[in-house]
Amino acid sequence: MNENKHIKYQKGFKYQLIAAAQFQLKIQPQSDIETRFINLSSDGVLTIRSGYAWDGPSGPTIDTRNFMRGSLIHDALYQLMRLELLPLEFKEPSDKELIRYCKKDGMSSLRAWWVYKGLHRFGTSATLPENKKDTLIAPI
Questions:
Q1: Residue 97 burial (CB < 10 Å; 0-12/13-18/19+)?
Q2: At what angle do helices 109-122 and 91-104 cross, to 10 degrees?
Q3: What is the distance between the alpha carbons of residues 119 and 124, in angstroms, rounded to a whole number?
Q4: Alpha helices, DSSP H only, in the chain?
Q5: pLDDT (tens digit, 9 = 90+) per residue, 104-121?
Q6: What is the pLDDT of residues 8-37, one digit of tens each?
Q7: What are 34's strand-pairing partners?
Q8: What are the domain boundaries of the chain?
Q9: Contact indicator for 39, 46 with CB cutoff of 8 Å
Q10: Which of 61, 96, 119, 128 is deepest in the core (most CB within 10 A)?
Q11: Contact yes or no for 65/45 (Cβ under 8 A)
């Protein structure tokens, strides 16, 4: 056996998808986007594979069931923007997809409005390439 002397990992995730999930979005990039865990087709089909990890709803909020699908979709879309695979012009449509799915799942219009306002004011930094999660190595 050839034992690894180091491991590489990332921190900052709370949830991990245990079965693939697929969503029809209103977002349609010019061409298909494919990564290890996320695919977004040019006709708006978002596929997130089993094993994908995300941090759930962000900010001063509570992780409720009516926020989980929306946060999964939103985190995947923002990750594609951080990776520079989805143009930043899709930030606003991504925020709207979060709200659309949260409302589908029973979130009140008032709470959805507050979530949207928070994203509009504070969400841009999470789309920028310099905010990709660092790869950590252990032991040093």
A1: buried
A2: 160
A3: 8
A4: 65-82, 91-104, 109-122
A5: 999 999 999 999 999 888
A6: 888 889 999 999 999 999 999 999 999 999
A7: 39
A8: 12-126
A9: yes
A10: 119
A11: no
